[in-house]
Amino acid sequence: MSNNTNPLWAPTPEAIAATQMDQFRRLVNERFGASLADYDDLYAWSVAQREDFWSTVWDFGEVIAGDRGERVLGNDTMPGAEWFPDARLNFAENLLRYRDDKTALVERLENGQRRSLSYAELYERVERFAAALRQEGVEKGDRVAGFMPNIIDTVVAMLATTSIGAIWTSCSPDFGINGVLDRFGQVAPKVLVACEGYFYNGKTIDSLPRLKEILGRIDSVQKLVAVPVARSAEDTRVAVEQMDRAVALQDFVGNAPQTPLTFEQTPFNHPLYIMYSSGTTGVPKCIVHGAGGTLLQHLKEHRLHGDLSRDDALFYFTTCGWMMWNWLVSGLACGATLVLYDGSPFYPAAKSLWDMTDEEGISVFGTSAKYIAALEKAGCKPRETHKLERLRAVLSTGSPLAHEGFRYVYRDIKQDLCLSSISGGTDIISCFALGNPVLPVYAGELQCRGLGMAVEVWNDDGKPVVGDKGELVCTKSFPCMPIGFWNDEDGSKYRGAYFENWPGVWAHGDYAEITQHGGVVIYGRSDAVLNPGGVRIGTAEIYRQVEKVEEVLDSICIGQEWQDDVRVVLFVVLREGVELNDELVQKIRTTIRANTTPRHVPAKVIQVADIPRTISGKIVELAVRNMVHGKPVKNQEALANPEALKLYENLPELAEA
To answer: Is 534 exposed, middle or buried (0-12, 13-18, 19+ CB in 10 A)?
Structure first.
């Protein structure tokens, strides 16, 4: 259980009063005659009075809409809730509200290339691309897919698509052919926007061979728009001129009519994005998110929980296959400058992203827990080597950030900043628990539950608990729930994914705890929870201890069925030149035992060369567990390094006591 008492950081009363979160609290008090004294009061009110809350978020976020309608909430069920059922709006219009000379986008590639666009230039680029899409016959409800790196052209293509009321879906160009077909093949895009190549870890990767095969196998694609990244514009044109149904970007937009940008007004729940589950246990689920819910939730998270404004430069290390890319791009609605980076975060050196932070004046730096752990293992201390003058917040997601990760950030990156571990996911394209500029930061904890989200932790009896572990659930409907899954006509897959345990209650699949002071601790995925002797253990509890062992670079933990019980097995990747001997095994076990319980101590510790991860960087405990038990791993295309799975097959160490 979490027993934090002393915060690592806390905002001053003056800093709290200057935040948009506190401004919002005062607005609520004024508008509704309330006397909410602090965030706890505001959160309780936001859940109890959801219609008033989301209506106020709409006003505070200055949502642009053709029609808001009178009703805030029609049918209030999960699934199937009808938020703002009479509203008509356009997502892209809200992200393109600013049309001035302030920098909107900065693009940085691993090889040193840099481009930028002002808000006015971004509007013009979107206008040209939207005209080209319309000329190609793209209409409301059609799908446009991006096989793209995290660059300016990707943002332009998404905004142009959604301005029409068409649906955007994307994955990063490091996906294999089957991974792309498993995703885009299900949703039948009319246009595919794709890079001809990209840069990663000092290498130039050519995408054209895969694009030719993808084109040949997805019949719905009428046009492939080839975006120059690794080649010049002219070389790209030459490279694709013999490809059937392909056109270079400059010709696609250059041949389009000069028509003004118009924003198709759509219902609140009109499909905006199709996202994909990681797909490590089968074909990925196609999760459909609505325009209004995504916009409203992102405005809430950016402006209130992130205090994002026009003064900020927002960076998140992400690919276009991860929902954090969609979350990042919504920062345009706040008028911030977005910094887009594509490449390896450690190329050419561990300090690369911190060089960029100083050069671009980044104020909000987003990354993964894995990156923070790797940065610490690399001995990187940005506080000693960089100015970081504008940096005021660090965000971390993807997996639980260990206590030591929190302490590393404050010790070796910067003392005075708000470190926000955030958690939610692709399923809600946002967060259930996240940061807050008016609250203290405790090691290992997410600061709070998100406003308007009725998040609880339930025990096995379906009773809410505080200070104890259980299933993270959301008991009331919220606007950014998926509107459904693609090709799930009767909704059975959707209901099965979230509402099987408790009908009408969203079960997110996280094993978690709500602390006495309102924070949240995530212990790992419920389906990866270990169960030795019938006691439930979150894998994050073990990873936290293993990270303390200097010799270990990375690890993955599973439960192996053994003699009518489950035993804990830990696989470790060690530093170069280090071998796993009895002394190191004992050190690992002693470290785990000293800070947890004897049940956490692995029965087996095994050295491996690599750990399989999804393309967005998450370790895949279920896939490893299946390999260990001789079960098939159905969809290895979802992995960045599927060859690593072979390392876990038929291991002699696991056949013995």
So the answer is: exposed
